[in-house]
């Protein structure tokens, strides 16, 4: 049954046709989504004694916002700020009270918080990651327990209960708004006009997209004065999981590879590898946040996965590598 739902969700994400009766049923459920957002906006907004930077999406999953969270957290740390990232810990067990981890925590961040949170701990030395579905409670915990003065609200655009100083919306330039419909018939969490609440827009994967000027014009038709930044996910190296050793990107051109991932936009990952000169003998995509099965890592051929996939693996053969990426302005200066 999960495979059926995943297949349907993927067809919707890729804007493919689905059977009319199924489409009608999904459209009928759409008012529930709109009502949920309307009810959230009725709740009293909570202000906390810290700078709050929300980084979120209009669409469900796969926009590539994690590199932006990493970049902004590093920038704030470099300014001498004490930074926490507030997350729901998607894919991990829910908790009643806030839990936190940093680079010095004895507990396994992945087991405690899920893959995205674990990746943040790994890539941002000095940051505190706080997991709690109640992000207001998480904010208070970050401030009172850890002395944080800067909070990055991960996936926070729809979490309107916590007041914020910046409201950054990340848009995947390859698939900005899907088919234009709300969940579950489309991928939009809110109508596109919700961009009126945003303070900044960051467009990702611009190197893999067309119609950038048209997309920018559509955004500014909704919010004429909003800053729009174009970016790409720039690969930096390949890290061997068995020992942490890094290799130049040239290794991808040495022979056929197998690519495997369990992320929201697998096509973007595969296209990135091809753009680096890799020959994909196989490319395997699994549901977002799912573990890559051991069978996908078997054999002697190099296997390339994403950094998010890598944090889920406790052990990996010596031929498994994670492609490291950083956010970079597009086009490069």
CATH homologous superfamily identity of the largest domain: P-loop containing nucleotide triphosphate hydrolases
**Gyration radius from CA atoms, angstroms:** 20 Å
> How many domains, as an integer?
2
CATH topology-level fold name of the largest domain: Rossmann fold
CATH class of the largest domain: Alpha Beta
Instruction: Give the H and E element order.
Output: HHEHEEHHEHEEEHEEEHEEHE
> What structural category characterises the helix and strand content?
alpha/beta
Sketch the major β-sheet: 13 strands, mixed
What does the overall shape look like? globular
Total DSSP E strands: 13
From the N-terminal CA to the C-terminal CA, the straight-line distance is 48 Å
**Unreliably modeled segments:** none
- DSSP helix fraction: 25-40%
Q: Which architecture name of the largest domain does CATH use?
A: 3-Layer(aba) Sandwich
Strand content: 15-25%
Number of helices: 9
Question: Mean of the pLDDT scores?
Answer: 93
What does this structure look like?
This protein folds into two domains: 51-226, P-loop containing nucleotide triphosphate hydrolases (Rossmann fold); 234-329. The chain is built from nine helices and 13 strands. The chain has helices at residues 2-13, 20-42, 66-78, 109-113, 115-123, 135-146, 212-222, 266-275, 307-310; strands spanning 51-57, 83-87, 99-101, 128-131, 150-154, 166-172, 200-204, 228-240, 246-247, 257-261, 280-285, 303-306, 320-329. The longest helix is centred in the N-terminal third of the chain and has 23 residues, at 20-42. It is globular, with a radius of gyration of 20 Å.
């Amino acid at each position: 049954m999960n495979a059926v739902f995943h297949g349907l969700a993927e067809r919707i994400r890729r804007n493919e046709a689905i059977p009319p009766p199924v489409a009608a049923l999904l459209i009928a459920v759409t008012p529930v989504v709109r009502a949920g957002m309307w009810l959230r906006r009725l709740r009293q907004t909570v202000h906390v004694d810290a700078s709050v930077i929300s980084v979120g999406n209009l669409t469900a999953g796969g926009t590539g916002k994690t590199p932006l969270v990493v970049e902004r957290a590093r920038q704030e740390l470099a300014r001498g700020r004490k930074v926490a990232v507030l997350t729901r810990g998607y894919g991990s067990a829910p908790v009643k009270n806030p839990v936190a981890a940093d680079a010095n925590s004895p507990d396994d961040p992945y087991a405690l918080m899920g893959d995205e949170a674990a990746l943040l701990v790994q890539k941002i030395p000095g940051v505190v990651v706080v997991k709690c579905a109640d992000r207001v409670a998480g904010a208070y915990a970050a401030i009172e327990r850890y002395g944080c003065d800067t909070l990055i609200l991960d996936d926070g655009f729809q979490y309107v209960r916590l007041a914020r100083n910046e409201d950054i919306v990340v848009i995947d330039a390859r698939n900005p708004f899907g088919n234009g419909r709300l969940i579950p018939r489309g991928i939009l969490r809110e109508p596109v006009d919700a961009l009126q609440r945003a303070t900044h827009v960051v467009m990702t994967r611009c190197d893999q997209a067309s119609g950038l000027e048209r997309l920018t014009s559509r955004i500014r038709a909704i919010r004429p004065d909003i800053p729009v930044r174009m970016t790409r996910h720039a690969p930096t190296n390949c890290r061997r999981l068995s020992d942490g050793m890094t290799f130049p990107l040239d290794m991808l051109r040495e022979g056929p590879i197998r690519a495997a991932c369990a992320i929201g936009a697998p096509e973007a990952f595969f296209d990135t590898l091809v753009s680096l000169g890799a020959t994909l003998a196989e490319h395997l995509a699994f549901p977002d946040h799912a573990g890559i099965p051991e069978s996908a890592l078997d054999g002697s051929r190099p296997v390339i996965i994403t950094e998010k996939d890598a944090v889920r693996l406790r052990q990996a053969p010596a031929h498994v590598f994670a492609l490291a990426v950083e956010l970079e302005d597009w086009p490069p200066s």
